[in-house]
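sorry to bug you again but im stuck and you know this stuff better than me. below you get a single protein, a line of residues and a line of whole numbers that encode the local backbone shape. mainly i need to know what kind of three dimensional shape the backbone takes. anything you notice is useful, everything is just below:

***
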Amino acid sequence: MRCDCFITESTFGLPVYRWRAQAEVHAEIDAWWRANAEAGRASLLMGYSFGKAQRLLAGVDASIGPIVVHGAVEPLNVAYRAAGVALPETHRIDDLDRAALKRALVIAPPSVHGSAWARRLPDASDAFASGWMQLRGARRRQGVDRGFVLSDHADWPGLHAAIDATGAQRVIVTHGYEAVMVRALRERGLDAGSFRTEYGTNDDEDVPSAPAEPAAS
């Protein structure tokens, strides 16, 4: 929709954030899961319960083994299926015996990391699916075996494409790397500024500290 003034988020408003095709990422997840299953280890894949978990479910190869989901994920799966979204069969952790769990892909929110719930999985390999996994340091801070770069947010080219599509000459940037995005837009000749909202970090991404910029007047 064309407009004169456009407000944009900038969660991944740095040039380093450029997403690969989802099919490539899902293929990497399948290879990791398959190798773990062959070694008799569960694959604990952490992603946010609403949206991210369903994106993961829709893209993996369900023929590799059983898929287990955390109790926070399954009610949302029910809603997605009711809306006509095709998702593979999923189980609760108590539905499977120990032998089956050793071949399972287990999708759960990041809050389970290091919890008693996660310790129920036999010798699990763990991974985190998030846009932040683009940075090696973020992956290291999460303390997981693998990081898969997958996000529901726009990457750097996507943010600029959205701004271009509006035709707006004034752009207000919020929520993320505001200063970097504002500078890039000003270099392109746009009237860009930023402001902070009442909201904190994203409800679906663990946002690291971002450089701040004074609020726009």
